[in-house]
């Protein structure tokens, strides 16, 4: 098995002080940076929410289920990776959501237009460890899509942060049904 680390949406707007802050986001950024520095993974990629005009994904009166405050707008500080993460740490970055909501990193494309699944296969990857923000939204969707695409998927839950930490049981159930495992 060749396992890649997939770091989902660890961006300023999803961390403390951001427009759609998730408690624990900054700690995820620090802990993921330490994991990358440990050299455990030969292949490390990032996904980024990358909005231009995503329609009803943004709302002045968000329901925090299908609509959200403005976040991760292209060209803003909020869209950038949360320090100490930075683009140079990643073998490739996949951008998603320019003109519509996109929760899964598998909806993203690299700057050269390659989708995440194709890129991973081209690099001989057959398993992914998924971490990032938010556990119950973009990490959830990325893990499920990864399993659908035929990758062995593990979620590093201690390296995630959730919008609703008390509501994760149904998410864990969905992952289990899809064959997604949780790291120790
Ligand atoms: Zn978004």
Describe the model.
- By secondary structure, the chain is α/β, with parallel strands linked by helices.
- Helices cover 24% and strands 20% of the residues.
- It is built from four helices and six strands.
- Strands 3-2-1-4-5-6 form a six-stranded parallel beta sheet.
- Helix 3 links the parallel strand 4 and strand 5.
- It is globular.
- The two termini are 18 Å apart.
- Bound molecules: zinc ion.
Structure summarized in a few sentences:
The chain is of the alpha/beta class and 184 residues long. Helices cover 24% and strands 20% of the residues. Zinc ion binds at residues 49, 51, 57, 71-72, 97.
Q: Which radius of gyration do the C-alpha atoms yield?
A: 15 Å
Query: What is the number of independent domains?
Result: 1
Relative helix content: 10-25%
Query: What is the structural class?
Result: alpha/beta
Order of helices and strands: EHEEHEHEHE
Q: Could you give a short account of the major beta sheet?
A: 6 strands, parallel
Shape: globular
Strand content bin = 15-25%
Total count of strands: 6
Count helical runs. 4
At the first level of CATH, the class is: Alpha Beta
CATH superfamily: Isochorismatase-like
**What is the distance, rounded to the nearest whole angstrom, between the alpha carbons of the first and last residues?**
18 Å
CATH architecture annotation? 3-Layer(aba) Sandwich
Keywords: Hydrolase, Metal-binding, Pyridine nucleotide biosynthesis
GO molecular function: metal ion binding; nicotinamidase activity
Enzyme class: hydrolase
Protein name: nicotinamidase
């Amino acid at each position: 098995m060749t396992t890649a680390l997939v770091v989902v949406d660890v961006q300023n707007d999803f961390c403390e002080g951001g427009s759609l802050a998730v408690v624990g986001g900054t700690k995820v950024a620090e802990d993921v940076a330490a994991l990358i520095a440990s050299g455990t993974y030969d292949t490390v990629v990032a996904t980024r929410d990358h909005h231009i005009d995503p329609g009803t994904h943004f709302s002045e009166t968000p329901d925090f289920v299908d609509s959200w405050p403005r976040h991760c707008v292209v060209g803003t500080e909020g869209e950038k990776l949360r320090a100490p993460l930075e683009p140079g740490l990643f073998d490739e970055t996949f951008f998603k959501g320019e003109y519509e909501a996109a929760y899964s990193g598998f909806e993203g494309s690299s700057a050269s237009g390659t989708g995440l699944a194709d890129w991973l296969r081209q690099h001989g990857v057959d398993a992914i460890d998924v971490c990032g923000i938010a556990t119950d939204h973009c990490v959830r969707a990325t893990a499920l899509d990864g399993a659908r695409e035929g990758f062995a998927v593990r979620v590093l839950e201690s390296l995630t942060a959730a919008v609703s930490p008390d509501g994760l049981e149904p998410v864990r159930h969905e992952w289990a049904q899809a064959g997604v495992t949780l790291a120790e």
